[in-house]
Design a protein that fits this description.
Layout (H helix, E strand, L loop, with lengths): L7 H8 L11 E8 L4 E3 L11 H12 L3 E5 H7 L12 H7 L2 E5 L12 H7 L7 E5 H6 L1 H10 L2 E5 L8 H15 L4 E6 L1 H12 L7 E6 L9 E2 L13 E5 L2 E7 L2
Parallel strand pairs: 1-7, 1-8, 3-4, 3-7, 4-5, 5-6
Antiparallel strand pairs: 2-9, 8-11, 10-11
Bound molecules: nicotinamide-adenine-dinucleotide (NAD) and the ligand Nc1nc(=O)c(N)c(NC[C@H](O)[C@H](O)[C@H](O)COP(=O)(O)O)[nH]1.
The site of nicotinamide-adenine-dinucleotide (NAD) has 31 residues, from strand 1, strand 2, strand 3, helix 3 and helix 8.
Length: about 260
Amino acid sequence: MSLAPLPPSALSFLDFYLPPKSHPNLFTTLTYAASLDSRISLGPGLRTTLSGPESKTMTHYLRSHHDAILVGAGTFVADNPGLNCQYPPADTKNALECSPLPVVLDPGFGIEITQQSKVLLNAAQGIGKYPVVLVSEDRYLAFPDKISKLKLLGVRVLTIHNLSSQTSRSKSWKLIQNTLQHELNVKSVMVEGGAEVINDLLLASHNEDATVNSVIITIAPVYLGKGGVQVAPSLPLDRLTNTKWESFGRDVVMVSGVR
Ligand SMILES: NC(=O)c1ccc[n+]([C@@H]2O[C@H](COP(=O)([O-])OP(=O)(O)OC[C@H]3O[C@@H](n4cnc5c(N)ncnc54)[C@H](O)[C@@H]3O)[C@@H](O)[C@H]2O)c1
Ligand SMILES: Nc1nc(=O)c(N)c(NC[C@H](O)[C@H](O)[C@H](O)COP(=O)(O)O)[nH]1
């Protein structure tokens, strides 16, 4: 599948919100696509396409600018995501180089990754990187066989000390960002969802437990209704700053951020 090129106006619109060439700490971008009623899928466990072709290309362009891409266990199970970059590669070598490191947040160590998982099919074809799974230490110790099996498939499992004993999920973001920066040597991460991950990270940023440098949201002109999986943090949050809006085909994209 080849994605349509982005016009120069889209590139300049995004430029300020991308990770800069050098940044002292981990640069975190939160990005997702939502409906007009702030739903990101039709229901739990359902994969729902919201982005049109232009904003889909934009997401892949963002992927090419980040070292890592993080999704939660719920998204991994619902979407079977490939988590690679399909834009702008002209060939396979390019696709591997521009693809971020896929990171799956799965404290309970419950997801099944098999040879048929899209992320591993991409890695085996050389068009994506092998993933890392972040799990709680207690769950890691409970499943030695699973770790060996995953290792054979090329999947790395990393533990986060005390992840499950955090009193709030907002607090666990500090540990997650530390692990990305110091253990995986990641300088920029793009967090794609799902709703639990997004709601917690927004709250963590509000509570200053985590840093979010950019927020890039695609709004699709559709209502998904009350049954949809909703982005709605548990508290009202501060108004986003440095916001700009631009049409991408039938969608609108909002960018916000501080460097
Ligand atoms: N439209 C979009 O841009 C988009 C993006 C991603 C996912 N989705 C959709 O979202 C749905 C999945 O969302 P969800 O909310 O069910 O699952 P999720 O992907 O947010 O994963 C939830 C799991 O992640 C882990 N987790 C989340 N926050 C954590 C934290 N702070 N600390 C430790 N662990 C944490 C926990 O294991 C939790 O059970 C699916 O339907 C998927 O299709 C849509
Ligand atoms: N930008 C965006 N628009 C959407 O309409 C949608 N459903 C997602 N969802 C994000 C989530 O992370 C998905 O899992 C990946 O979009 C799967 O896609 P890939 O196989 O990795 O290309 N993201």
